[in-house]
Amino acid sequence: MVATQLVFMRTVSSLNMTNAYLNHKCLAKQGRYKPGSWYEKQLQKIIVSIGSGDGFTHGYDMMGLSDDSDYVSVTNQCRGDSYGSKCRSCFATAIAGLRRRCPRYKGAIIWYDQCTVEISSFDTQGKFDKDNDFCMSNTKKMNVDSFGEKWMTFLDNLVGKALKDYLYAAGDTRFGTKKLYGMVQCRTDLYNNSCRKCVGHLAVKFQDCWHGKQGARVLGSGCNFRYELYPFVSSAKPRPSLK
């Protein structure tokens, strides 16, 4: 479990205009592939296919290939307000980042502001990973009584909204004399209970990191949430439906 203390500054550029690198994990247990191997060739085919496909329109794409003894998949999940060209750009940046930070690893995850990209030797569709996640929080504390209870109620409301709206939701609520802005997202292939369980798992696992802080974000491969005392995502319309 990783908890990172960060001070978030309010700037105009925070509204969906940045794509900062957040974290990465090289999944050593999945092993590494050799140059020229089946894995490397199929991985490259998938990257090219996703990069030239129309999944960026919806902000999500997942593709896997297998033979008798091996499997490789790539999943790209862009933030709910970062579809189209922003999603395409983030995917390209993430792939370059993975190649540099986790060279020849069969499994790896990288997080940016606007997307999460995972390479895996397992079929991850419809599943969320309980191990590879992290938390980033503001060092300043929230001077509001019963913060945890109030935030969890707001988070639960956002999850309920996300389940009706492409598994992404953002909103705000009054918090004493302040306004709290929040966002939650689940990977597009996680539905209903899986999405809710994923968010609940992260909220409990990293409670010591986010509880009582003026801002925090918790990210996994299957879901993530964030709250701040300032708006941090744009008011763009939700991405087009996959249907």
Automatic annotation (TrEMBL):
Signal sequence, start to end: none
InterPro entries (alphabetical): CRR_secretory_protein (IPR050581), GNK2 (IPR002902)
Superkingdom of the organism of origin: Eukaryota
Residue intervals of the Gnk2-homologous domain: 21-124, 129-232
Protein name: Gnk2-homologous domain
